[in-house]
Give the backbone structure.
Amino acid sequence: MSAHTKQLQPGSPEAIERARWVLESTGNLELWAALFFPRRMQQSAADKLKAEIDKLRRELKNGGGEPRLLRLKAAANYLSVSPACLRKLTVDGEIAVTRANQNPGTTSPWLFDVRDLDAWAESRKERF
């Protein structure tokens, strides 16, 4: 049996490299699964990979998936604090807030930039 027709051991470095090459050069998910998975798992693996690729394509089309601005409750969850705690941090000037509607006399929900939340979390780190 030649090197091109021998069955590769699933998960071996050779199999992984060959599967990567097949997927990148042909886009054939079934062929990729045949090289990478045992026969009983091939269709399932190809279907799962196709679903993951489709999800990533949708996220890229929609700007990356995760929103940059979060409302109060989502931002509080992001930081693992209560909404009341985040509201106090905002009123105290520790975390910046954005408002969608800048017109005087109108109210607009607070929107928190994920980058500001990350910066605040970084500034609070301590070493013991």
Remarks:
- Helices lie at 13-26, 29-36, 42-61, 72-79, 83-91, 114-123.
- The two ends are 61 Å apart (CA to CA).
- The first helix runs from residue 13 to 26.
- The chain has a mean pLDDT of 78.
